[in-house]
Amino acid sequence: MKSSEKDNKNSLSQRQFCSIMCLKPIPFTFLLLFLGFYVALSTPEDPINCFSHNTNCTITNSYATFPDRTICEAQQVFYPTQEQDILRVVASATRNGKKMKVATRFSHSIPKWVCPEGHNGWLISTKYLNRVMEIDAEKMTARVQSGVTLKQVVEEAAKAGLALPYTPYWWGLTMGGILGTGAHGSSLWGKGSAVHEQVVELRIVTPAPPEHGYAKVHILTEEDQRLNAAKVSLGLLGVISQITLKLEPLFKRSITYVTENDSNLEDQVVAFGQEHEFADIIWYPNQHKAVYRVDDRVPIHTSGNGVYDFVPFRSTPATQLQLLRTTEEVVDFTGDAEGKCLLAKTATNVLMTTAYGLTNNVGFHNHIQASGSCLGSDPNTKIATLCPWDSRIKGEFFHQTAFSIGLSVVKNFIEDVKKLVELEPKAFCGIEMYNGILMRYVKGSSAYLGKQEDGVDFDITYYRSKDPITPRLYEDIIEEVEQIGIFKYGGLPHWGKNRNVAFEGVMNKYKNADKFLKVKDEYDPERLFSSEWTDQVFGLKEGLMISKDGCALEGLCICSHDNHCAPTKGYFCRPGKVYKEANICAGSGS
């Protein structure tokens, strides 16, 4: 870019900044109060696009950007509606040596699990595998196809007076996607918060030798150890066709949000999770606040019919999203930490005031456990909606770092983060703009690639520049939090979130990784469901860490040289401030 063009860009940003920030804080309060109360432009775009009928295709995620910003291609996409269709596709691919990947309707995973290797692979979409096949009230089970959304399961189970007890908070996930990435809610009780712990039977289609027709259906029950591989499989074993889930009688819950100073958060975190069945905590480090979700079952006759329509998951007008994103870009570009902190405080105050979207503190489980109204009230709805991160407009664009820390060391992790807060409190305002650090409780899992021990999952969302070589305000602090969690305390990354750096050496953290690989080799010996990316994550190939100019800015590498940061923009590779083994991109003024 020429210097005159730079000047014009800066000048425009300053004018935008003034036009927005000179009106603070009332307009943002007004804006955020009405966030999500309008019908917007259109339903989410299909992540698969083909240049001709189901051939010559590209696939992305719901954010339209993978961590390395590559475009994934496929020769062809198939849309099965039943198990026999899957068998035919997998058999044909196996016969022809075609690489395959399973895709979902909304594709919410950030990493590249859906990308086939090369340009000639096949995609198998579960978009039309969307039927709840049976709710057995006597056995208290639900049998569903793998493309069914969490919302469908919750609603159909409730009609029969039943409930899926523990789920993620976002209902736009498919059941196959949930199992693929080990998605979870929050609980240390019972079997824990992961949906895959409720699986009692699973049907999966895998490649097979010629004498078995090149494809085979495996029926896995709780007595079969292979289920421990299949119920968190990253899509590497085959195509899940049907899932049978164990349900419970429908119940009511009571939720109360209690806001306290975070001075003793590290001492309360374990006991709080053990005391309340559906507990979670939202931490706002710069504001020194911790919001404790006191969430438990109550007798079914308890008064209350509350609904939890989480505000950030509501449909939002494009104009609001564009204004918010422009403001975020301007405060980051101009280094206005005060402006970012003001926006964060305004946003969190509004969310707290509106109880995050909860209409009553008591309600039936199916009305409280998950939400996502920006996707529409019905899978076949014609009502136009727009999720805040919809890539077709200038809306939210972010990184997500999510990892679980064992209960035995979670206190130490929080103490280390607090040391960083003490050094640079404003560095955490960017996180607070995205509703702080969400802390959910997870339990050790029987799945080979599930959680290895009881712990706390830290979910951190923060600004991402549209320009991959533009550093973020306080880039170094958030990178250090990431490296403290992942490396110092051995945090397990959430399989459906995170940047490349979180998966460095990840398979060494799973005591049953070899058992998973054994089942993988048995079901897919020709590696037709594997890709270069999955081999890199599993440590079978080099290349997970991408060394190039600016790679550390996007979490594609851990910096070891200044050029991995942005030296021309004043960001250099430096050791951590609290965790000295960390290598972070720090601004020259840090």
What's the helix and strand layout?
Elements lengths: L2 H19 L4 H8 L14 E5 L2 E5 L12 E7 L4 H13 L4 E4 L18 E4 L6 E5 L4 E5 L4 H10 L2 E2 L11 H7 L17 E9 L7 E7 L5 H4 L8 E8 L1 E2 L2 E10 L3 H11 L4 E5 L4 E10 L19 H16 L3 H17 L8 E3 H4 L29 E9 L3 H14 L5 H4 L4 E6 L12 E9 L11 H14 L3 E2 L19 H11 L8 H6 L33 E5 L7 E5 L3
Parallel strand pairs: 3-5, 4-5
Antiparallel strand pairs: 1-2, 2-3, 6-7, 7-11, 8-12, 9-10, 9-11, 13-15, 13-16, 14-15, 14-18, 17-19, 17-20, 18-19, 21-22
Helix pairs in contact: 1-8, 2-9, 7-11, 11-13
Pfam families: ALO, FAD_binding_4, GULLO2-like_3rd
Keywords: Ascorbate biosynthesis, FAD, Flavoprotein, Membrane, Oxidoreductase, Signal, Transmembrane, Transmembrane helix
Protein name: L-gulonolactone oxidase
Describe this structure in words.
- It holds the Pfam family FAD_binding_4.
- Belongs to the oxygen-dependent FAD-linked oxidoreductase family.
- InterPro entries: ALO_C, FAD-bd_PCMH, FAD-bd_PCMH-like_sf, FAD-bd_PCMH_sub2, FAD-linked_Oxidoreductases_BP, FAD_lactone_oxidase-like, GULLO2-like_C, GULO_Plant.
- The chain is built from 15 helices and 22 strands.
- It has 590 residues and is α+β, with helices and mostly antiparallel strands.
- α2 (26-33) packs across α9 (337-353), α7 (265-275) packs across α11 and α11 packs antiparallel against α13.
- The longest helix is centred in the N-terminal third of the chain and has 19 residues, at 3-21.
